[in-house]
Predict the 3D structure of the following.
Amino acid sequence: MTGSVPVTVVIAARNEAANITACIESVNWAREIIVVENDSVDDTADLAMRAGARVLQHPFATIGLQRNAAIEQASAEWILVVDADERATPELGIEIAAIVKRPGEEAYRIGRRNFFLEKEMRHGGWDRDRPVRFFRSTLRYSSNRVHEHVETSASTGQLESTLLHAPYASIDQYFEKLDRYSTWWAEDRFERGRRVSALTVVARPPFRFLTMYVLKAGFLDGGAGAVLACMAATSVMAKYARLWAMGLGIR
């Protein structure tokens, strides 16, 4: 059952059977929910329909273009973008309902409370995560394969309510995503003409660790903060190593 708040919620999902029902239920105050999916081999589409969402099948190119395809089909003037591994709150619905009646900006940032292996990360930079997620349906996402964003030249507002975000259910899932996203990241930069040296591959990972763990106080998150900073450094190494190899003509 969908609700009365006049917004369209857009959820891009593939093989998200473990998450999709709870995600949709967390935004059941919205008037319309569209799940855009591609090539799932689990019950993502069926579960989404049972939970009250409209399912749009669309061939995958990038996450941003998946979301744009759903926005094109939206019936509401306002769009809320939520990922399958995120959960909205009733407070967010109340705040959005008020803004729709008296909008001040064309786009709004929403802070995310991020969890790593069931522990909330309050430091290390994850506490500053505020993507643009609520905006007028005239706006669109960039086509970047990684770090896609809503394209707007206007100032953006900031909502007080947050999204709950648990991007990694396990260490295995972290490395599965690392493999995919580091490849996309390197391909994007390579196609734009960027090249890096082996020194960059060596220097960047420890710099990321020190930034997260020391400068941004990730150590205050205990063991999880230390592990997350190490894994972030590994992610940086994978991205730059792939970009370096592409510069040598190795894919």
User: Anything to note?
Assistant: Residues 222-247 form the longest helix (26 residues). The mean pLDDT is 95. Residues 65 and 143 are 6 Å apart (CA to CA).
